[in-house]
Amino acid sequence: MKNIVALIALGKMLERARREKRLTSYQVGQALGVATAFVSSVENGEIDPSHVDFERVVAFVGLPLKVVDDCKRPPRTIKLDSSENPSSNERVNVVDLELYRKQKWQQISLFDKD
């Protein structure tokens, strides 16, 4: 996944889903086929799970894989064509507005109190 914000968001979603289901980290680990320490590390955003483990966590949380896959994409950069200074190596980050809105929505929904 490599995106630290996405790792933290995934961890918060896992923790929230676990608490809503009134499960312990041990029980979630048993359901996912992983160690309790792995569940704790994912919840704390400390590790980047493998693709298989990532899919298991996403399925447990109940998110569509497509939404989470969008979060895994690295930011794009483009080179600016500067006619004034041809040797310029200026770069800008291109923001995917739809992805940005999804991430913002996920961040906001993480902190909703029921």
Strand content: 5-15%
The total of helices stands at 6
Number of domains: 1
- What is the CATH third-level topology name? 434 Repressor (Amino-terminal Domain)
Structural class by SSE content: mainly alpha
Q: List how many beta strands DSSP finds.
A: 2
CATH superfamily: lambda repressor-like DNA-binding domains
H-E string? HHHHHEEH
Side-by-side strand order of the widest sheet: 1-2
Question: Which stretches are poorly predicted, pLDDT < 50 over at least 5 residues?
Answer: none
Rg? 18 Å
Distance between the termini: 29 Å
CATH architecture, by name, is Orthogonal Bundle
Principal-axis shape equals elongated
The top level CATH class name: Mainly Alpha
Largest sheet: 2 strands, antiparallel
Helix content: 55-70%
Residue-averaged pLDDT: 73
Structure description:
The protein has 114 residues and is mostly helical. The model has no long low-confidence stretch (mean pLDDT 73). The protein has one domain: Orthogonal Bundle (434 Repressor (Amino-terminal Domain)), CATH 1.10.260. It contains six helices and two strands. Helix 1 crosses helix 3, helix 1 crosses helix 4 and helix 1 runs parallel beside helix 6. It has a two-stranded antiparallel ribbon with strand order 1-2.
